Amino acid sequence: MTATDPALTALAQGWCALSLLHGRIESHVERALQAAHDLSVREYSLLDVLSRQHAGQGGHLQMKQVADAVVLSQSATTRLVTRLEDRGLLARYLCPTDRRGIYTNVSEAGLALLEAARPTNNEALREALDAAATEPALAPLVRVVRQQGRRIGELQGTPGTVRDRVGTGRVTPPPLSPGTRSDIP
Fold first, then answer.
1. Residues of the chain falling short of pLDDT 70
2. For residue 95, which phi and psi values (nearest 5 degrees)?
3. Is residue 181 part of a domain?
4. Total domain count for the chain?
5. How far is CA 83 from CA 10, 20, 43, 129, 142, in A?
6. 178 in a structural domain
7. One-character DSSP codes across 13-32
């Protein structure tokens, strides 16, 4: 294959279209979340991922798993967790069975913000996809995104509110020792 090979050119064009679609969606959703809730896309994603934790086997995510889920490095995820913890939206605590492990939970304030922001996120996502669907280069990708969303929705069922999902299975962290802050590095 050469640099002018039609297959490589088509592959590069497809990658550029995917990057363009992602950038447009992220920018549109970011503006909407910032304007309505003072929340970035990454902050929203982190709250969403952490709100899905549960008390059952494997219900808590390690920081590497959280970083992978929000598509950030571990250090960037730790900084993001710290920012949201400083805002009272998250709380970190030591694993009760392994003092080396650190867990992060969404606070009640974080759950309330996530619940309020979810309709904004969903509407902005719909708007961005609708706008992209009118462009011939992006329309096929929009169809795939929507099909994938329907498949996932069918597998998971239609989610209720954030509070419905976390329900009574939500892990409540043990109280911190007196004089201890929750800003564990």
1. 1-3, 158-185
2. -60, 130
3. no
4. 1
5. 41, 29, 9, 30, 33
6. no
7. HHHHHHHHHHHHHHHHHHHH
For tokens 């400083």, the residue is: 86
Judge whether 46 and 33 are in contact, CB under 8 Å: no
Residue 30, domain member (yes or no) = yes
Provide the whole-model pTM: 0.78
Question: What pLDDT sits at residue 2?
Answer: 59
From first CA to last CA, the distance across the chain in angstroms is 49
Residue 88, Ramachandran bin (φ over 0: left; ψ between -120 and 50: alpha; else beta) = left
DSSP 184: -
Tell which residue, 36, 52, 114, 46, has the closest CA to residue 82.
Answer: 46
- Residue 40's CATH number: 1.10.10.10
pLDDT in tens, 18-67: 999 999 999 999 999 999 999 999 999 999 999 998 777 777 888 888 99
Asked if residue 10 is part of any domain, the answer here is no
Q: For position 60, what pLDDT does the model report?
A: 83
Residues spanned by the domain of 76: 19-158
> What confidence score (pLDDT) does residue 169 get?
38
pLDDT at res. 181: 39
